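Box S1 | Example of a co-folding query
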Amino acid sequence: NDRQPPNTGLDVSTKKIKLGVAIVGSESSWRAANTESIKNAAGQDVGIDLMMQNAEGSQDKQIEIIRRFIQQKVDVIAFTPIVETGWEQVLTETKAAGIPVILTDRKVKVEDDSLWTTFIGSDFVEEGRRAARWLVEHKAADSGVTNVLELQGTAGSAPAIERKQGFEEVLSLSSGFRVLDSEIGDFTYESGQALMSKAISLGKIPQVVFAHNDDMALGAIKAIEKAGLKPGKEIVVLSVDATKLAFQAMQAGKLNMSVECNPLLGPQIIKAVKDLAAGKEIPVNIITAEGIFSQDTAKRDISTRKY
Ligand code: GYE
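Box S1 (continued) | Returned holo structure for beta-D-fucofuranose
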């Protein structure tokens, strides 16, 4: 056949896609499940050559990792932006290098949205609203105002900004609730415990705690117990993620509810990577469908929980 292309020595069909992944850190059990999910999905695909780096909670470090991926000429970069802002420069560099960027789990705020290709993750505003809706439905005070303490995730991160926004949006429609304080943590168990202990020691004991993730809620539960109070009863505790540890706390009656945030994004990320590498068009937003969980069903749900 004289129409065969010249042999360049490069077999395109067996060339692996070099994927650079820059994860946020190791702050929570959600993150551990998310990291595992990406590793597993990449590991199961012979077409993917995964390079994964941990930014350990530092934006500067994450930017360095992305720059190294550019030097290493990866085909696709997937990263979870620690905070929303400050990405223009490095994303301009990835664009100039012709490397498509996938945002996994957290979003960025940049003026030029052509700096990234797709976002794969959850609707954090809706998660905040779900927690507030549950509260309004289940814990309407008999009289007076119910005071809420909010424990925020990492300052400037998309989940902290948006969960706060959604939660307060719904609560503000109901006169029975007031966010007494909204303290900034960092999605860790330790920060939840420290912020709750501080509130208690200042005598600011709320009737409700809304933590932006399970780890912080579990830390807060610890602090409530240390102060001789009953979490889940004397102080209602709500959180987001719905990890296995949260189900255990719900079963024990210490956590009242958790809004689901699915960390198992690996398969969707790998699919997007392959589509991009193949030059296919992909959706701008790939949003995960999620629900809420409370004590009534925790016992049943825990048996099938994967994270
Ligand atoms: O809820 C929290 C984690 O970005 C959605 O980060 C993620 C959040 C998650 O540390 O547990």
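Residues 27-28, 30-31, 105-106, 159, 187, 213, 240-241, 261 surround beta-D-fucofuranose (CB under 6 Å). The chain has a mean pLDDT of 93.
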